[in-house]
């Protein structure tokens, strides 16, 4: 199995809930896959907005990157790109605050590498803790999930925010019979 086939397994698992775009470009940066999920929940809605008890909007943005190696420079660039480009555009719509009734947004990077990153990079991934709240959480919050998976080593490294993605990817890796480069 190659990295492309591994990505296909992931995409088959999430395709019911996510809109998936292949070879996605944003601000001059290419992502192998961009997957987007939007959940809108409300309670007691009838024909008018005034009868709603509550209303929430939740978003998840997954960015897939193929890379032979992941070094500190690339990792820091991705983190800066997420904070300074992706969050303002995808979460706040280039405005000051997110959409009305925004509850949360997750910005997730899944970096699929050929070679396992160094110990220094591994520790840096685990220590990424970027979270942002809007108007003291009255307008919701956003967090950054960072995951590096090396399928041929059966390795998944993730920060604390991405524990759910790590568990999901480990489950996929454990069910693969044999991984080839």
Keywords, separated by commas or semicolons:
181 residues, alpha/beta, 29% helix, DUF8052, DUF8052 domain-containing protein
Report on this model:
It comes from Lachnospira hominis (ex Liu et al. 2021). Residues 4-169 form the DUF8052 domain. This is DUF8052 domain-containing protein. The longest helix is centred in the middle third of the chain and has 20 residues, at 72-91. It contains four helices and seven strands; from the N terminus they run αβββαβαβββα. The protein has helices at residues 3-14, 72-91, 119-126, 163-174, and strands at 19-26, 29-43, 54-67, 102-113, 131-133, 141-150, 155-158. It has 181 residues and is α/β, with parallel strands linked by helices. It has one domain (3-42, 55-174). Strands 1, 2, 3, 4, 5, 6 and 7 form a seven-stranded mixed β-sheet that branches.
List the helices and strands and how they pair.
Blueprint (H helix, E strand, L loop, with lengths): L2 H12 L4 E8 L2 E15 L10 E14 L4 H20 L10 E12 L5 H8 L4 E3 L7 E10 L4 E4 L4 H12 L7
Parallel strand pairs: 3-4, 4-6
Antiparallel strand pairs: 1-2, 2-3, 5-6, 6-7
- Which radius of gyration do the C-alpha atoms yield? 18 Å
Could you tell me the mean pLDDT? 87
Q: Return the domain count.
A: 1
Q: What are the secondary-structure elements, in order, as H or E?
A: HEEEHEHEEEH
Please outline what is shown here.
By secondary structure, this protein is an alpha/beta fold. The protein has helices at residues 3-14, 72-91, 119-126, 163-174, and strands at 19-26, 29-43, 54-67, 102-113, 131-133, 141-150, 155-158.
């Amino acid at each position: 199995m190659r990295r492309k086939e591994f990505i296909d397994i992931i995409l088959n698992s999430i395709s019911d809930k996510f809109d998936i775009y292949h070879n996605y470009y944003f601000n001059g940066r290419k992502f192998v896959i961009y997957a987007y999920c939007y959940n809108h929940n409300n309670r007691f809605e009838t024909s008018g907005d005034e009868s709603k008890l509550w209303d929430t909007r939740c978003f998840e943005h997954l960015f897939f990157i193929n890379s032979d190696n992941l070094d500190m420079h690339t990792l820091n660039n991705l983190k800066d790109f997420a904070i300074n480009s992706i969050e303002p555009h995808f979460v706040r719509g280039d405005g000051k605050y997110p959409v009305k009734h925004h509850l949360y947004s997750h910005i997730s990077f899944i970096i699929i590498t050929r070679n396992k990153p160094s110990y220094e990079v591994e520790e840096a991934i685990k220590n990424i803790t970027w979270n942002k709240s809007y108007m003291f959480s009255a307008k919701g919050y956003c967090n950054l999930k960072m995951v590096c998976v090396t399928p041929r080593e059966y390795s998944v490294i993730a920060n604390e925010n991405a524990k759910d993605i790590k568990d999901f990817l480990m489950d996929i890796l454990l069910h693969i019979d044999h991984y080839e480069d």
